[in-house]
Design brief:
5-stranded mixed beta barrel, OB fold (Dihydrolipoamide Acetyltransferase, E2P), 9-stranded mixed β-sheet, alpha+beta, 19 strands, BirA Bifunctional Protein, domain 2
């Protein structure tokens, strides 16, 4: 415990000894700091008594007077305390302020607004009280927290000292609300599907496993935003649905991947992947403009203009262009030689032709600025997408490509129950051979398809899109990212 903390605890005990509750539940407030400053001329002219609440961010003593700054969630305002103005305010008089109040404490202040000689808008305080005592001192004013790991671990302090972090959080809220509003305006219905599943589906990913005590069964945290559930809703007669929520993948962590993050997925009956690409391009432009007020971004050294013509990138042609490998006419041995030649590291556990091709693509995508859409993805790595009408080896799948990565995933959804069952069988074989990211066989979903699902387009995007537009890592863009426990 620091000396400063010990001093604050002593002050807390002195306050309690005076029968004062240092943490009252109720406060009075007539205005926020922003409202006070925005309406300063009228409030000061009328000498209106106003009540503000917030945290003291500075205290400067000048004999029988004191200047301070009060901060709430809307802004900051200067306070002026005079000893003679607080004579009849026991126990919260000037001596209480000087001897028992610290920077970081929360207070309720009452007074009138005026302009100082330096023309700073200020509240002349004639009544105050303590509403929450801070027993730890805030980090040093000008430097805050310097250690990057501590910034994430004590995010509340990082937010307190860094306005750009607060701004990022506010932008992220606008980002998701804009997506929600866009889809609702397009006639989509927001739904909620299970987070706990007995069979994971909708993605190639390793799930988190937990035990359901009441049912005494093993369950999985979902790895997609209810893909197979929303498709059941298409079977049930809904035509446009979407969900925004948390999903979980027990796999690697880097700038583009986390284990616990927010995802959006929509499903649109009687639409195909071409309709999906048109809608997603419109969605990206709308969300970027509404959230960031621009369509031009600097991301990973790429200059991105979302308003330019979106290109089409063919999977087979792109991989062949950058590696010389034809993904539809290759084998695992040839790809492993190429991966070694290109110095591409990969996980050898459960390694198969599907993972091999995917590793080649990940190398190639880093060279593409975008914006555009990847199409022509092979069937082997698209177990839930409809086959292309002209080439049965590829699927009607599309992925937005921006700044060298995929920022979403969409299909003309597979609605042939026999084809779906066969692909689940292939995925099950891969899983049994050690591929922990291969999909599970969902018998119930196949049965639902057997009742008939209309042609449907589905699309999903995660908070990776927001992180990319911010040109930051996903971890930086989470308010409270998961951290290891301190030793």
């Amino acid at each position: 415990m620091s000396n400063e903390q010990e001093i604050r605890l002593e002050r807390l005990n002195k306050i309690i000894s005076q029968n004062i509750n240092p943490y009252p539940a109720s406060i009075k407030r007539t205005h926020t700091t922003k409202q006070s400053l925005d309406n300063f001329n009228q409030l000061s002219k009328d000498e209106t008594k106003i009540i503000l609440v917030g945290r003291l961010r500075s205290i400067r003593l000048h004999g029988g007077s004191c200047f301070a700054h009060l901060e709430d969630g809307y802004g900051k305002i200067q306070l002026f305390f005079r000893k003679d103005a607080l004579l009849n305010n026991a126990p919260f008089d000037y001596d209480f302020l000087v001897n028992l109040i610290d920077i970081g404490d929360f207070v309720e202040v009452k007074g009138t607004l005026f302009l100082t000689k330096r023309e700073e808008k200020t509240l002349l305080v004639n009544d105050f009280k303590l509403i929450s005592k801070a027993i730890r001192p805030l980090p040093e004013k000008w430097h805050g927290i310097q250690d990057e790991e501590d910034k994430l671990r004590k995010r509340y302090l990082d937010i307190l000292f860094n306005p750009e972090v607060r701004e990022m959080i506010e932008k992220k809220a606008r980002f998701w609300n804009t997506i929600r509003n866009f889809l609702i305006q397009k006639g989509f219905l927001e739904v909620e599907t299970p987070v706990l599943e007995t069979v994971t589906g909708g993605a190639d990913a390793r799930p988190f496993i937990t035990h359901h005590n009441a049912l005494d069964i093993e369950v999985y945290l979902r790895i997609s935003m209810g893909e197979l559930w929303q498709k059941r809703l298409m079977v049930a007669g809904f035509e446009k649905t979407f969900e925004i929520g948390r999903q979980f993948r027990n796999e690697g962590m880097d700038a583009e991947h986390l284990q616990d993050y927010t995802q959006m997925e929509f499903y649109w009956a009687y639409a195909d992947y071409k309709n999906g690409m048109e809608l997603v391009e419109e969605l990206f432009k709308y969300v970027a403009q509404e959230t960031f007020n621009t369509l031009q971004f600097k991301i990973n050294e790429f200059d991105i203009d979302l308003n330019k013509k979106w290109e089409i990138y063919d999977y087979r042609e792109t991989v062949k262009k950058y590696t010389g490998i034809d993904v539809l006419q290759t084998n695992i041995e040839e790809i492993e030689v190429k991966l070694k030649e290109l110095h591409i590291k990969y996980d050898k556990q459960g390694f198969n032709i599907t993972r091999a091709i995917d590793n080649l693509w990940k190398y190639c995508r880093k060279k593409i600025a975008g914006p555009g859409f990847l199409i022509g993805v092979p069937v082997s790595i698209s177990p839930l997408a409809k086959r292309d009408d002209q080439n049965l080896e590829i699927t009607q799948r599309f992925q937005p490509i921006v700044a060298g990565t995929e920022l979403g995933n969409g299909y003309s959804e597979l609605n042939d129950p026999i084809d779906q069952a066969q692909r689940f069988n292939e995925q099950q074989k891969l899983k049994e051979a050690g591929d922990e990211e291969a999909q599970m066989y969902d018998y119930d979903f196949v049965e639902a398809l057997e009742y008939g699902m209309p042609p449907t387009c589905g699309f999903g995007m995660s908070e990776r899109v927001f992180a990319f537009l911010m040109n930051k890592s996903m971890r930086e863009c989470q308010i409270f990212p998961l951290m290891k426990l301190k030793n």
